[in-house]
């Protein structure tokens, strides 16, 4: 953990400090949880048999890619508090067995998942 920040709490868990600083070090694992340092860190929960979803950011563009595996579609939602609002992401392209979705200068929060049809 890096210095600064504040306190976050929920349920049985409390975290003091700053999460996501570039100097936070190597990923930390415990049980079903993982914490990775960096401002664009990713909490990854892998569904058995699903392709891994990769998200990266470069020069204002967020890029999402995953192996083109039959039956899996990319969905997005602006709020995890609204589970009924997941919708298919439009503009997905496929090249050499990999699916790509790019967002230029996104604002606000967006959450992504792969869903089996």
Describe this structure as you would to a colleague:
The chain has 117 residues and is mostly beta strands. It folds into two domains: 2-35, no CATH class; 54-116, no CATH class. 0% of the residues lie in helices and 49% in strands. It is built from no helices and eleven strands. The chain has strands spanning 2-10, 13-18, 28-30, 33-35, 54-58, 61-67, 72-77, 87-88, 93-95, 98-104, 111-116. A four-stranded antiparallel beta sheet has the order 5-6-10-9, with no helix packed on it. Strands 8-7-11 form a three-stranded antiparallel beta sheet, with no helix packed on it. A two-stranded antiparallel sheet has the order 1-2. Strand 5 (54-58) and strand 6 form a beta hairpin. The radius of gyration is 16 Å and the shape is globular. The termini are far apart. The relative contact order is 0.17. The model has no long low-confidence stretch (mean pLDDT 81).
Classification by helices and strands: mainly beta
Distance between the termini: 39 Å
Q: Secondary-structure element sequence?
A: EEEEEEEEEEE
Give me the Rg, rounded: 16 Å
Tell the overall outline: globular
Sheet having the most strands: 4 strands, antiparallel
Biggest sheet, strands in spatial order?
Answer: 5-6-10-9
The averaged pLDDT comes out at 81
Q: Estimate what percentage of residues fall within beta strands.
A: over 45%
Residue share in helix: under 10%
Q: Could you tell me the number of beta strands?
A: 11
Question: What is the overall number of helices?
Answer: 0
What's the oligomerization state?
Answer: single chain
């Amino acid at each position: 953990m890096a210095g600064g920040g504040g306190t976050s709490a929920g349920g049985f868990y409390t975290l003091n400090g700053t999460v996501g600083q570039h100097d936070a070090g190597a990923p930390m694992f415990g049980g079903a949880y993982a914490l990775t340092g960096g401002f664009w860190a990713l909490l990854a929960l892998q569904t058995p048999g699903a392709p891994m979803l990769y998200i990266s950011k470069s020069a204002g563009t967020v890029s999402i890619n995953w192996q083109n595996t039959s039956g899996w579609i990319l969905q997005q939602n602006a709020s995890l508090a609204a589970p009924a609002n997941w919708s298919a992401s439009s503009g997905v392209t496929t090249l050499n067995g990999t699916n790509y979705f790019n967002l230029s200068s996104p604002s606000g929060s967006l959450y992504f998942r792969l869903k089996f049809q």
